[in-house]
Amino acid sequence: MGLVERLRRCTGFDWDEGNRDKNWLRHRVSNGEAEQVFLMQPLVVADDDGHFAEEERYFALGRTEKKRLLLVVFILRGDLVRVISARDMTKREREVYRVHG
Prior knowledge:
The protein is α+β, with helices and mostly antiparallel strands. It contains 4 helices and 5 strands.
């Protein structure tokens, strides 16, 4: 099953206590904004090949309801999305989003 299909089967989000406030404090991205990225179109998702960890990580390029462009790093835990990090896209990431989104 592909990543997009796995995301479609997700039923919600799992916020780790250690990450619950991190994105707001570091990047002024609320948990709600990070979640919106997965509900809006277009959404570009891919493996995070540059990170080595026990769990497979992915990233998403997407926008919020207010059209804020975000990069969200996440893992899948069963049928839940666990956000690891969320921040504004860089110029290069915005270009990738425009081309692939």
